[in-house]
Design a protein that fits this description.
- The chain is mostly beta strands.
- It has a domain of about 70 residues: Roll (Chitinase A, domain 3).
- The protein contains 1 helix and 7 strands.
- The strands form 2 sheets. Strands 5-4-3-7-6 form a 5-stranded mixed beta sheet. A two-stranded antiparallel ribbon has the order 1-2.
- The longest helix has 6 residues.
- The chain is globular and about 30 Å long.
- The relative contact order is 0.20.
Length: about 120
């Protein structure tokens, strides 16, 4: 079996759907495919978003976490809130939607940073 590259960085939660193993015929080595977690939005990350229809200069930054984690002037969005749950697991460049009191809103994930 070929050697696998080492993954460094913070521990990540990996769902079964994120890892796939494709087996070749017996005379071949298996091919292992692992999803690239580089831009995933985990809890505790800082996410920059733009609402659909807004210009990029109206981008907003949020910490995906809990009020106890608030630092500085960064607003906090709970991962259990409609916006937070839509953002968790999304990636830079994704557009996600969530239900707000005034209807469905769509936001684009512009940037994902470690907190």
């Amino acid at each position: 079996m070929p050697e696998l590259d080492t993954i460094s960085g913070p521990p990540a939660k990996i769902r079964l759907a994120d890892v796939g193993i494709v087996f070749r015929p017996r005379d071949r080595e298996p091919v292992v495919a692992v999803r690239d977690f580089t831009f995933d939005v985990p809890e505790g990350s800082i996410v920059t978003i733009v609402y659909e229809g807004d210009s990029p200069d109206l981008a907003e930054r949020y910490l995906i976490g809990h009020m106890e984690e608030k630092t500085g002037d960064l607003d906090v969005v709970s991962p259990n809130s409609p916006l937070g749950s839509a953002l968790v697991g999304s990636r830079k460049g994704d557009t996600v939607e969530y239900q707000a009191p005034n209807g469905t809103l769509r936001v684009k994930v512009v940037e994902v940073e470690a907190s």
